[in-house]
Write a structure and sequence with these properties.
The structure holds three protein chains of three kinds.
Chain A (H helix, E strand, L loop, with lengths): L1 H19 L4 H22 L24 H32 L4 H11 L1
Helix pairs in contact in A: 1-2, 2-3
Chain B lengths: L1 H22 L8 H11 L2 H5 L4 E8 L4 E7 L1 H24 L6 H20 L3 H19 L6 H32 L4 H6 L1 H6 L3 H15 L8 H4 L5 H10 L4 H13 L3 H22 L5 H22 L2 H32 L15 H15 L5 H14 L5 H23 L19 H19 L2 H14 L17 H19 L4 H8 L6 H23 L4 H20 L17 H19 L3 H21 L3 H22 L11 H27 L5 H12 L6 H9 L1 H33 L1
Antiparallel strand pairs in B: 1-2
Helix pairs in contact in B: 1-2, 1-5, 2-4, 4-5, 4-12, 4-16, 4-20, 4-21, 5-6, 6-7, 7-10, 10-13, 12-16, 13-15, 14-15, 14-19, 15-16, 15-19, 16-17, 16-18, 16-20, 17-19, 17-20, 18-19, 18-20, 18-22, 19-22, 25-29, 26-27, 27-28, 30-31, 31-32
Chain C lengths: L3 H24 L7 H19 L1 H8 L6 H20 L21 H27 L1
Helix pairs in contact in C: 1-2, 2-3, 2-5, 4-5
Classes of the chains: A mainly alpha, B mainly alpha, C mainly alpha.
Chain lengths: 118, 770, 137
Amino acid sequence: MEFLLAIITGLLYAAGLYMMLRRSLVKLIIGLIIISNGANLLIFLLGRITKGHPPIIPEGSKVFTEIYADPVPQALILTAIVISFGLQSFAIILIKRAYQVVKTDDLDEMNTIDEDIK
Amino acid sequence: MLIAILTGFAFAVLLLFGGKLVKGKLSILSTLIPLGLFIYFARFIGDVSSHNFIQENFSWIPSLGVNLSFKLDGLSLLFCLMITGIGTLVFAYTSAYLKGHKYLDRFYGYLSVFMGAMLGLVLSENIISLFVFWELTSISSFFLIGFNNDNPASRKSALTALGITGIGGLLLLAGGIVLGNISGTYNISEMLANRDLILGHEYYILAACLIFGAAFTKSAQFPFHFWLPGAMKAPTPVSTYLHSATMVKAGVYLLFRLSPVMGGTDFWNTTLTIVGLVTMVYSAFHALFRTDMKGILAYSTISALGILVFLIGLGTHESFLAAAVFIIVHALYKATLFLITGAVDHQAKSRDVTQLSGLRKVMPIVAIAALLAAISNAGIPPSVGFVGKDLIYEGTLHMENSVVLLTALAIITNVLISYAGYVAGIKPFVGKLPKRYENVKKPPFWLWFPPLLLGTLGFVFGIFPVLIQNTLIKPILWSIGLEASEVHLKLWHGFTPVLGLSALTIGSGILLYFLLKPSHKLISFIAKFDKVSPKYIMEKMTWAFARFSAFWTNVFQNGYLRNYVSTITLFLIILMAFTLLQETTYRVDYSSFAKLTVYEIVILSILILAIGLIVFAKSRLAAVVATGIMGYCICLLFVFYSAPDLAMTQFAIDTLTVILFVLVLYRLPKYLKLSDYKMRIRDGILSLAFGGLITILALEVLAQPVNSEVSDFYAKNAYLLAHGKNVVNVILVDFRGADTMVEISVLAISAIGVFGLLKLRLKSVERYQK
Amino acid sequence: MKTLILRTASNYLLPILLLFSIFILLRGHYLPGGGFVGGLIASIAFVLHAFANGLKNTKRLLKFHPGFLMPVGLSVAFLSGILPVLALDEPFMTSLWMHHAIPVIGKLNTALFFDIGVYIVVQGVTLTIIFTISESA
């Protein structure tokens, strides 16, 4: 299963990068979202995956008695998910503003306009 | 002592708030600060002159061996008295010189910061704190040189000075660290105990070169001297204070201080002697070709600094004695000359020695002060300059090798310096008073009193050299570990060879003054050599460096986001591939496929389909929907692999992301097919290579054994210490609570950013349009 | 999307979802849940209400701008962290526990207050972003 997940992670990275390399603004944001998902999955995978044993101490005991999923990557990813939402919304709005100001969605054209303003 | 050092900084901070108070008539009151400090340090003369020193320690970063330890011995006492004493006069002088200036408070602020930093520099026992104060003096000097900040030349000079002295400061830090690593301590007096270790170490030459770099840049030694003439763009009080009396001597101070630690080797002595000789002759010669009084004084200052470095380089008892006396001599006469230059400039609005003449008629007292300084500068008895010059010749004559050469060069330098003194100190005041200067007013009290006082002191110390002999000179020699009981400063030694040399110097100096008149022709003559001067070369180098960085930046920072991303990725791929593909250890365990459940297979298939849809979708809506599906699939993966918290969060966030997209979708630009076929193939290959490498990386890591120490700690103690059973949540709110605190702050910032971009900006644009 | 069914349903859904989010928040220390998820669920509840009834009505319901939740939440979180420093001279973020359990809620502790702070901040952030965007989109 790890093998398949590793491939999926690689796919997510590849798709995200490909989208980021497009000239369209919207594709850039989507690429950003895909790559952040890929990063989450990578961290999750590297913390080793465990089926059916969440890192929650069972009722009635004070420590784990069986194996358990690694809680540290989960804590890392949990905040990463929420923060990536903040990042995405900020990026969307930034791009929207840029679109309003320079009236183009072509990233390459934004470059030339930037120089004209100077 | 810490309080004394901090006073300067504290006063500068107070000026931020009470700046208006010192702008008016009260500006003279700020003189009380350096005066108070002068009195404070003067009280220690008794202690220090009886072969004691005062030490204070404050912990700063004890784990790195960096402490604020201060030591007041003969050498630092001399500098402290110069800093506060000349400081007092300069503060008072400024109140008249810059009377009613718009930024007088700022000026006083910079000056007092400098004073505090300079005191810290000379009192520091620890070489790291010495470095900190060293850089602070460079920075305050930068602000003071660029004080007339609407003048481009002034700004350029300030930047040059900061560049040169700032680099020197970094060299000092590096040198200090090398010394600290060799000797195991950053304290200079403890380094002294490890002298043999330092001298014998393989990095001794490196350490010495770094220290030289620091000292030569700060003390304007050839070929780094050119920042000092440029620094004359600063108001005259600054030139007096920083660029002749105190700051530029910091390099000399450092060499003095480290001589007992690192000095005495051939490398040390030869380098210092040669650099000192070149500097003193080169710049004394240059002084001949200047017509601006400050320019003349700047070059003669560099020459005097060269003499000091040269004397330290000789490394004999006589030469150290000569250097110690010469520091005092030079400070007295050069400060006087600068101050009278300021007075002349302030009243007659000119500093050109070819124009100025006969000013004694309109400002007699300034003329007297100038005459006193010029006499002391030329070393004519009974000034203290005579005592100093005698000692220099004593120093050169007592050398074992090349006595004639050294003495001859010293004589030439002294003749040229005395000529420079005559031109700056006597020439403007003698002769016929031109008509346009007839109406020049007498300078106010604070413009003529400080130079007169300093000039007079030069004679008092000359007639009674015993005044400085016991209080200052002997403790200085003690502080660098030399015997001083035999030191007897005298004006009259009887008919000795030294007297003959002095007479020769004085005679040639006067002769030169009558033979060579300063003129603009001389300037244009020397200007021909500008192309080979260190300044020109350094400027060219800076220019070329800037051009190269502009070119280099344009290659990579071309403004196309795609190019940035692909360049970075390409390098990452190459680097990762290089390491990862050398040995792959992962073997696919095909047996694990058998354990796959139907659910997993279905979800993974949907996920792959969704990714494909995102990449190849023709419309925005399809892509957004596919993104949503991808998010939910990952959410389900979290459910399968024991991460319920993650699944819940991912689910909620995914929903919100889709909502967000739906809200702005129709405001966002439509999909455009902008890239051509080739480009997409190229990007596709790049992306697939990147993704493939990530896969290999993940598999490689998975093949390695896990270190779960951290997780085990959290898992074990989640209930015992934090009374929680959901370990993920316990980590977030308890074990790593501070991290979460910062994370929610980041979230809040992003929300404020969104709000600001959408709301505030629009409002201000609207207001603008109205 | 202002259909009658959704509007009617959302009026009931809002309190239920909010209650659910608080439930998720409180149980976070023992079972899956916590401030992050709780805050997100609560904001989804408000967003749903806004979709059904219009943003103006939701804002009227809220009575204040959601942006104010951010400083409030940050202060709650910070205070719960600083409390041990002030009260017992313990390091920042040391969690304090009551010795006796309160019925229903269980033992009160500073970590819970920290989680409540997170809950409020997340809600403030999400609602500010969504509301701002939908207003100007």
